[in-house]
Specification:
Blueprint: H1 8-11, E1 13-20, H2 28-44, E2 49-51, H3 69-89, E3 92-101, E4 104-113, E5 116-122, H4 134-137, E6 148-151, E7 154-157, E8 162-166, E9 173-176, H5 180-183, H6 188-194, E10 199-204, E11 207-208, H7 212-227, E12 230-235, E13 246-247, E14 251-255, E15 258-262, E16 271-278, H8 279-287, H9 290-293, E17 302-306, H10 335-360, E18 364-368, H11 373-389, E19 396-400, H12 408-421, E20 424-427, H13 431-441, H14 450-471, E21 473-477, H15 481-486, E22 499-500, H16 507-521, H17 524-534, H18 555-559, H19 562-575, H20 579-589, H21 596-612, H22 614-618, H23 646-656
Parallel strand pairs: 1-2, 2-3, 8-17, 9-10, 10-12, 18-19, 18-21, 19-20, 21-22
Antiparallel strand pairs: 1-16, 3-4, 4-5, 6-7, 8-9, 11-13, 12-14, 14-15
Helix pairs in contact: 2-3, 10-11, 10-16, 11-16, 12-17, 13-14, 16-17, 19-20, 19-21, 20-21, 21-23
Length: 657
């Protein structure tokens, strides 16, 4: 793999650190050295930016010591020392300190990089209720008389209207709000995000009381999601004074509502959390969000351009520090969360179909039951919809249509499942009808090509819909989201139905939904059959069987592993990532199971099929959206059926060369 093509910056990843330093109240020399040590550690771990807590140079709990000139003077000198140390470590940082300006004192956050103090942001909202007395010492940023201050002979931009834009990192812009600013009715970060800030930094000193930690964590999560931004938060630690309150030291790295890393609380030693945040992804989220793109910031900002340090740590390119990167992005890793996920999706599918039945007044359903994954899930959804509406199960007409490649295992599972659920079952072999069709169109039945396969699929759909007419029923489709993405469905056959209950469910999730149903909804024979269906190889069963009923056609051997394709689908459609980035991420996630060359070949297959299959998606039937990725042309995905894939294929060829 050519490393120069996969630098973190080119892929949109920025490694950041949030730090809760060991602290002594009012001991500036000690605190400064601790901060410098932490900067060096963060840089050694590959971080290019580090965030420290509010007033970390002096300590937040200095109280009336903030009036002491020696404290204020030494804090400013310490800031310059920290800026120089950050330059030597090749890392940028945000640190907190009190600053005197025009006869007033401000609670400030300073942004340092390349040995310079780039800008100083004063706190806007000063808490002065209950245990807080900030207005006793500090003035609000609203009262600041100047837009610059003098520090060591340099004019430093000062104000809440500062944003910091990295020249050497496209789309990376930093905004700063301080502690209570986040808790305000309208946090400044909202306006900063609308002005282009993709990374919000919050140096904080939020004390700990019962229940507050969970609320604060949720607040950070919500603000990151609301701003479509990366939110870094560093809270003051237990080294602060405990005269009346205790500080726990929570620090968090959150990306658009996903918590990527956090520190342990209530520890006196320096704590640090490091993660790779995806700036590129945030910019994409904003592009596709109409609410964000139509809004405007409520004030003007000064944008200060600078070069973000490149970092010098012993960072391994193959190591991506993200706890949310998973080979199954559609499936939660946590079992309890996955169970809730499955229950919600099952309800969405069932209610979607129940509404269609209520609207049409139809009380019968026809469904092709093959004994495979998709038709099994669709049948379970149908049964649940019938229970919601109080309709008799006999109205569910399942039809098995054995053909040239049907195995005894799938046929038996289909029959046993229908019997255990108490639904109507009809078996209609398609051999003779398809052979007659071959004779009519002049096709040699010994030629096992696409005509041979698709004729069987269309024959089954014709039977399904004709019986639907016989019983006054609605034909339910069984194909899933992954098949729609890859075009792995015969046009106007299994591609078509009168309601497509699995249209929003990818193949990797179908398995988990059936497993959840087997363990949480059903028992006995039904549960046993569902487990066996889940263990059956995926196949369209369209080619003749080998000796001893041996299956000779497996879908994943032809088009590639669904595990890979679902990963590709999520990254391409949900995040809009480039082929290069999708490939690199897949190589990280599947390193133990697939070689880079194999990943690349299946990714080529994905793009080729994804573009070629759009005409099928443009004509797909109604069906419920259940997740953040959907391909309905009436909902999430509008793509020309004749769009060229040249740009994407060209980038893949460059990777191959």
């Amino acid at each position: 793999m050519k490393q120069d093509l996969f630098s973190p910056t080119s892929l949109g990843f920025l490694r950041v650190a949030v730090v809760v330093p060991e602290l002594r109240v009012a001991d500036i020399r000690y605190n400064t050295q601790i901060i410098i040590d932490a900067l060096q550690e963060a840089a050694a771990r590959g971080s290019r930016l580090a965030l420290f807590p509010e007033l970390c140079i002096t300590g937040y709990t200095c109280a009336d010591l903030f009036y002491q000139s020696v404290l204020l003077d030494q804090a400013s000198k310490a800031l310059l020392a920290i800026a120089q140390a950050a330059a030597e470590a090749q890392i940028a940082a945000v640190v907190g300190l009190p600053m005197h300006l025009g006869g007033k004192l401000y609670n400030c956050a300073a942004f340092v990089s390349d040995g310079k103090v780039l800008g100083i942001v004063p706190k806007t909202y000063l808490p002065s209720t209950n245990e807080y007395y900030e207005e006793r010492w500090f003035s609000s940023a609203k009262d600041a008389p100047l837009s610059e201050i003098q520090l060591a002979g340099e004019s430093i931009p000062f104000g809440t209207d500062l944003l910091f834009s990295a020249n050497n990192f496209p789309g990376c812009m930093f905004g700063i709000e301080i502690c209570e600013d986040l808790w305000a009715v309208q946090p400044p970060s909202g306006s900063m995000a609308l002005a282009g800030a993709t990374v919000i930094l919050n140096p904080s000193a939020s004390d700990e009381i019962l229940g507050k930690a969970e609320y604060r964590r949720a607040l950070i999560q919500q603000q990151a999601a609301r701003c479509l931004a990366i939110y870094l938060y560093a809270g003051a630690g237990p080294g602060e004074s405990t005269t009346d309150v205790v500080f726990s030291g929570g620090a968090y790295i959150n990306e658009n509502g996903r918590m990527l890393a956090e520190t342990e609380r209530f520890l006196f030693s320096t704590q640090m959390a490091v993660a790779d945040v995806d700036v590129q992804s945030m910019n994409h989220e904003r592009l596709r969000n109409s609410s964000f793109s139509s809004a405007l910031p409520d004030r003007a900002y000064r944008t200060l351009a600078f070069n973000l340090p490149e970092g010098v740590g012993s960072r391994e390119q193959a190591e991506l520090l993200r706890n949310d990167l998973t080979p199954t992005p559609f499936v939660p890793a946590d079992p309890s969360q996955r169970a809730k996920h499955c229950q919600e999706i099952f309800h969405l599918q069932s209610v979607g179909l129940a509404k269609r039945l209520k609207h049409t007044g139809i009380k019968n359903i026809t469904i092709a039951l093959s004994g495979g994954l998709d038709s099994t899930l669709a049948l379970l959804v149908v049964q649940q919809a019938f229970e919601m509406l109080g309709l008799p199960r006999e109205g569910i007409v399942a039809i098995t249509m054995p053909g040239f490649g049907t195995t005894n295992r799938t046929r038996s599972n289909a029959e046993r499942l229908a019997e255990s659920l108490g639904i109507s079952l009809r078996q209609i072999p398609i051999h003779d009808a398809v052979l007659q069709h071959f004779k009519d169109i002049g096709h040699d039945p010994n030629l096992h090509n696409v005509t041979y396969e698709n004729a069987q699929a269309r024959e089954r759909t014709q039977i399904l819909m004709d019986i639907g007419n016989q019983v006054g029923g609605l034909a339910v489709g069984t194909g899933d989201l992954s098949e729609l993405a890859l075009g792995w469905c015969t046009y106007n056959a299994d591609h078509m139905s009168m309601y497509h209950v699995n249209a929003g469910v990818p193949k990797t999730l179908v398995r988990y939904l059936i497993e959840w149903c087997a363990e949480s909804v059903y028992n006995g024979v039904t549960s046993e059959v569902l487990h066996d269906i889940n263990a059956t190889p995926i196949s369209p069963e369209l080619l003749p069987l080998g000796e001893n009923d041996a299956l000779v056609q497996e879908t994943e051997a032809t088009i590639g592993p669904y595990l890979l394709h679902d990963f590709f689908l999520f990254q391409v459609v949900r995040h809009g990532f480039t082929p290069r980035k999708v490939y690199w991420l897949a190589c990280q996630v599947f390193a133990k199971h697939h070689q880079p060359a194999e990943v690349l070949e299946w990714l080529k297959t994905f793009y080729q099929r994804f573009f070629a299959a759009q005409f099928k998606r443009s004509a797909m039937p109604d069906g419920p959206k259940v997740g953040s990725v959907a391909l309905s042309p009436r909902g999430d995905w509008r793509m020309p059926s004749d769009a060229s894939s040249a740009l994407w294929r060209q980038e893949l060829e460059e990777l191959a060369n």
